Predict the structure.
Amino acid sequence: MSSFYRDLKKAELHLHLEGSLEASTIHEMHPNISKEEVAAKYAEKGFSAFLESYKWVSVLLETPDHYALATRRLLGQLQTENVEYVELTLSVGVILWKQQNVAAIFDAVNKEARKSAIPCFWIFDFIRHFDLDHAMRVAELAAERARDGVVGFGCGGDEARGSALTFVPAFQLAQRAGLRLAPHAGETSNAQSVWDALEVGADRIGHGIRAVEDPALLRRLRQDGIPLEVCISSNVATGAVEHLLCHPLRRIADAGVSVILNTDDPAMFGTTLSEEYERAEQLGFSRDELRLLAETSFQFGFNKQVGSPQ
Ligand SMILES: [Zn+2]
């Protein structure tokens, strides 16, 4: 890896803690699980296989200590990447599904975040193919921690089985608590899903790449200054795009829409934020453009007290 990509000071805004678990960290938590077993799980391709692997790895996080270890290892890795601001997504919906204690887990991960040299904030997300009650519960938990490191609220899961519009009361509850909204949309579903996310008040869109199919939507995103959190390797691994070189990042940026490069689930997709910048170069971005992308990534952070580094 050329040091150009690593040396760029970067913000990472779309990164699921659960998807960051390296085989070595899993082996540390569960010595009976071999690194080969983890590698085999992560190598499965396609969106349904990805959701299954995500569930599998989430279940391995059995205690607040496991979550703390995951956070520690991830933040350590991000430091070597010159990441200088991060918002980590915590799948609170999955924690509830596992019937674990959200408060104890959040206290454990937030303690690790506070110890890190990187300013680290949290986005709580719910599972969109569960019901509204589930989303409301996650929104309440996010609202309770709005002054304690949580800056955003979003949703993940199977987009085709849950429009953002179904969850308007949950998004409103989060907004009333001062949280910003970053739902996944337009990843595996279509441009309409991004329109729905805008209707619920999204401040950023997780993925949003299918917006490329709708010129009116691209115009709207540009006019409203809503950025897309683009995760190139993730899109290739889940099959959201057929091949790296088919990725619409270039076309979206050329339409004047703001983009931020992210890893999504770096361990599962075998990537790093530096490598995502390298992929963007393969898609036709010049080094000056990459510098600009890195610089502007800070502007879209939800914690406005944290500005771009000097
Ligand atoms: Zn994601």
Observations:
- The two ends are 25 Å apart (CA to CA).
